[in-house]
Amino acid sequence: MSNQIICPTSGVQVNETKVRLVAGLVLLIAIGYWLTNWSVLPLLLFADFGLRSTDLGKYSPLGAIANGVVNALHLPYKGTDQAPKQFAARIGFGFAILISVLHLAGISALIPVGVLIVFAALESIVGFCAGCYVYTYYIRLFSKIND
Q1: Phi/psi at 81 (nearest 5 deg)?
Q2: CA dihedral 58, 60, 62, 68 (to 10 degrees)
Q3: Which of 7, 9, 34, 129 is deepest in the core (most CB within 10 A)?
Q4: φ and ψ at 131, to 5 degrees?
Q5: pLDDT digits (tens, 9 = 90+) for 74-88
Q6: Nearest to 49 by CA among 21, 90, 13
Q7: CA 142 → CA 5, 78, 93, 139, distances in Å?
Q8: E strand or H helix that includes residue 92
Q9: Which of 8, 42, 3 lies closest to 143 in space, CA to CA?
Q10: Is 146 helix (H, G, I), strand (E, B) or coil?
Q11: Which residues contact 50 (CB under 8 A, 6 or more apart)?
């Protein structure tokens, strides 16, 4: 087997421009929480990641805002496979749960928020989706286990 990373696909395409704008909004919300400790912000991330990590992504408030920006500015469509992006949203959902639970327990969530900030910045600014790379290895691992 080759060492080349081949990303399993779902066959469903999403607009990478929109995905990167959503990541930018996540970045802004995470920075806002970091600066203000306002409990509504991780709950917003929890709800939004929860929607985007399932087949309910069309109801995502951040997705709707990003879609409005794409349409208003006539930004280009750049297709990318949905499966790794949805997997990355599931990882984000886990971070949002962790941040919300820590906040509600009165425990500092600065480390998981900082991690979320780094990965949202990588996706939104340079188009690097760390969750997409994890997805590839995750699929490879489970395909080997099932062989």
Answers
A1: -70, 140
A2: 30
A3: 129
A4: -60, -30
A5: 999 999 988 889 999
A6: 90
A7: 15, 29, 21, 5
A8: helix 82-104
A9: 8
A10: coil
A11: 56, 93, 96
Question: Is 48 contained in some domain?
Answer: yes
- At residue 138, what is the residue type? Y
Residue 123: give the domain boundaries. Answer: 14-145
Q: Is residue 53 part of a domain?
A: yes
The domain tally of the chain equals: 1
Domain assignment present for residue 62? The answer is yes
- Domain assignment present for 137: yes
- CB of 70 closer than 8 Å to CB of 15: yes
pLDDT tens, residue by residue, 79-115: 998 888 999 999 999 999 999 999 999 999 999 999 9
Amino acid 71 reads N
- Tell if the pTM clears 0.85, that is, is over it: yes
